């Protein structure tokens, strides 16, 4: 490795931004490329961040911005489809003195992270893809979509679930659908919504919402996945409103705002867990490029952020950037990520199978208690 290492980060989502900021803090030169011209500035409705995700955001130096922009709470309500509150659970804190849960508008979180990347001094190229990676013992030569090339000591693949980098380096694992899908929308927050409430049953498996600021929330309904081609985009608002209209409590007020199909997001649940190693030579995977899970535990972003934290810590430890270091990264992450992926998938599978006596509270409690430990 050269005396002044250079890293290419492919992908400007949560894990890519996080690893960039942490490496730049240690003086590592970082180029970040992102395929989308707008750097995902408007993508998504909302996101649930639990304490272990907030812990990494605090390490990045952006916690105060997140706290100002989001909505923190410490409990979750379980309701009947008509809105009757059946039980309120105190959330397990996974981030020390931080809130158990923070709801946030996803574009707002992206702005906080991209501002931090800009402030770090990293070089950012938007609308740019990496086409090929030629490796030797010293580094990686990358050819970009515009024909230019760059030479790096390491490439961090943070390009998401459909990672082209993962495929380019010969990792054959691909995401697989779990059988569920989710409808999401951002909407004004009714005054009575101060936590996540989840209704089980009715026409959907789950109907829930999460406050994302003093004035906003995101709402979602989960059903069995359908052929996307059978649902024209112009009908998305109608489809989500049809499902949501069966629920009571705050749902009628929320449903009034499900009118614009362009603001409704329909996504299948997928699972992915790359086994054996998360690197090939000097290209290493982080976040959704290495693993993903259904949002039944709201841990997807947290696992991605933790990857970035652990990898950056190893890369800035003074050790050689070699197979032993990258394998240690994998071995530190895999037990924790595997537990989250398997639990998240199991929670959904119990619903798909109609298992009425499933130990949902036990599985969630065991998993969240494990996440209180540092990664």
How would you portray this structure in words?
The structure is a single chain. This protein is of the alpha+beta class. The protein has a domain at 6-58 and 106-175 and 272-370: FAD/NAD(P)-binding domain. Helices cover 32% and strands 28% of the residues. It contains 10 helices and 20 strands. The protein has helices at residues 14-25, 51-59, 63-69, 106-120, 164-168, 236-244, 251-255, 300-315, 323-353, 360-370, and strands at 6-10, 29-34, 47-50, 71-73, 75-79, 85-90, 101-104, 123-126, 130-135, 140-144, 149-152, 154-157, 176-188, 196-200, 206-211, 216-224, 265-273, 279-280, 283-285, 291-292. An 8-stranded mixed β-sheet has the order 6-5-14-15-16-13-17-20. β14 (196-200) and β15 (206-211) form a beta hairpin. The longest helix is centred in the C-terminal third of the chain and has 31 residues, at 323-353.
- Report the sheet-strand fraction: 25-35%
For the sheet with most strands, the description reads:
8 strands, mixed
Count helical runs.
10
The SS-based structural class is alpha+beta
Q: Could you tell me the mean pLDDT? A: 96
Q: What's the N-to-C terminus distance? A: 27 Å
Strand-and-helix sequence, N→C? EHEEHHEEEEHEEEEEHEEEEHHEEEEHHH
Biggest sheet strand order reads 6-5-14-15-16-13-17-20
CATH topology of the domain at 6-58 and 106-175 and 272-370: FAD/NAD(P)-binding domain
